[in-house]
UniProtKB/TrEMBL annotation:
Name of the molecule in the record: Phosphoserine aminotransferase
Cofactor: pyridoxal 5'-phosphate
Coiled coil: none
Keyword ATP-binding: no
Positions where N6-(pyridoxal phosphate)lysine occurs in the chain: K191
Cofactor: binding comment: Binds 1 pyridoxal phosphate per subunit.
UniProt organism field: Maribacter aquimaris
One Pfam family of this chain: Aminotran_5
Length: 354
């Protein structure tokens, strides 16, 4: 039986994507060859890469606006340092909203001065800092749109006249935004896009080439752009599967359509968290993430009962991250509304038992 998979990442993808990807592993486009045994320079794979890059720009509404899409390797974690390598000449600003922002900030410090413009560390990152000031003279400002571990999400983005960089690993393609306010977006594939192994980078070309240091080829966005994201062997399976997910999203009606479904899922779960006395939310209400909902039992003695109930209901992956404890239900694009319904039913049953 298919589980209700609330895993934070790698995570659920559409069933039809799993099916098509597995078919291509056996026989790619009727070629008699597997997707993972053909040359990445073959016409069929070059088309896949092109399609994936174009779909990413199309879905984000960034076609023809000076942006390039790349499918790189090394995870979002490599982008923490690639961003700084390519953009940090003297100083950069970072908004510290959680574990991943902190890691990005730490890597950037290897390349120049880093100013933490705001931080919510004082309350274990359960809110998004607001009202912070952005100093003059920054090379860029770095934000994390969704904090996967703590379950917070930026609802508003500061207006700045310097390049705006955003780690969107855990909410890319999940909600409508004016993506043209960002100059560089990066996201590990393994949440809303595909399997682990590739990272989408969308970058406005005119922000590149401004630092004085020499950049090793593999870490240089310009090199990857000049080779159409094929400077070296790309993660063929991860790129193909990401392309399938982007196609699925386009056929569904794009980001506008999925946003509506994501809103319904989040509302259903958060209203249960708020109305059911057995549970309490972790993140501040106004900053709650529509992707990752973090919550706790109000009485930890109920843990064994709750854990048995959700496992019995076929639910997977709702244990919280060790730095927060409690529970985290990740509701990425491919998670059906019905799965959230199953979780909410289990939570209501807990109320009857509690
Ligand atoms: N940023 C965010 C917001 C994340 O959620 C994660 C992974 N969970 C990362 C960065 C790191 O990604 P990767 O494991 O692909 O390096």
């Amino acid at each position: 039986m298919k589980k209700h998979n609330f895993s934070a990442g790698p995570c659920i993808l559409p069933q039809e994507v799993f099916l098509k990807a597995s078919e291509a592993v056996m026989d790619f486009n009727g070629s008699g060859l597997s997707l993972i045994e053909v040359s990445h320079r073959s016409k069929d794979f070059v088309e896949v890469m092109e399609k994936a890059r174009n779909l990413a720009l199309e879905l984000l509404g960034l076609e023809g606006k000076g942006y390039k899409a790349l499918f790189l390797q090394g995870g979002a974690s490599l982008e923490f340092l690639m961003v700084a390598y390519n953009l940090l000449e003297t100083k950069a600003g970072y908004l510290n909203t959680g574990t991943w922002s902190s890691k990005a900030l730490k890597e950037a410090r290897l390349f120049g001065e880093v100013i933490e413009v705001g931080s919510s560390k004082d309350e274990n990152f359960n809110y998004i800092p607001k009202g912070y000031t952005i100093p003059n003279g920054l090379d860029y400002l770095h934000l994390t749109s969704n904090n996967t571990i703590f379950g917070t999400q930026l609802k508003k983005f500061p207006k700045v006249d310097i390049p705006l960089v955003c780690d969107m690993s855990s909410d890319i393609f999940s909600r409508q935004l004016d993506f043209s306010q960002f100059d560089l977006i990066y996201a590990g594939a393994q949440k809303n896009m595909g399997p682990a192994g590739t990272t989408l980078v969308v970058v406005k070309e005119d922000i590149l080439g401004k630092v004085s240091r020499e950049i090793p080829s593999m870490l240089d966005y310009k090199v990857h752009i000049s080779k159409d994201s094929m400077f070296n062997t790309p993660a063929v399976f991860a790129v193909y599967t990401s392309m399938l997910t982007l196609e699925w999203l386009k056929n569904l009606g794009g980001i506008a359509a999925i946003e509506e479904i994501n809103e319904k899922k989040a509302q259903l779960l958060y209203s249960e968290i708020d109305l059911n006395p057995v549970f309490e939310g972790f993140a501040k209400k106004e900053d709650r993430s529509n992707m990752n909902a973090t919550f706790n039992l109000t009485d930890s003695k109920l843990k064994d009962t709750f854990d048995a109930l959700w496992k019995e209901a076929g639910i997977n992956g709702i244990n919280g991250h060790r730095s927060v404890g409690g529970y985290r239900a990740s509701m990425y694009n491919a998670l059906p509304l019905e799965s959230v319904g199953v979780l909410v039913d289990v939570m209501s049953e807990m109320e009857r038992k509690g």
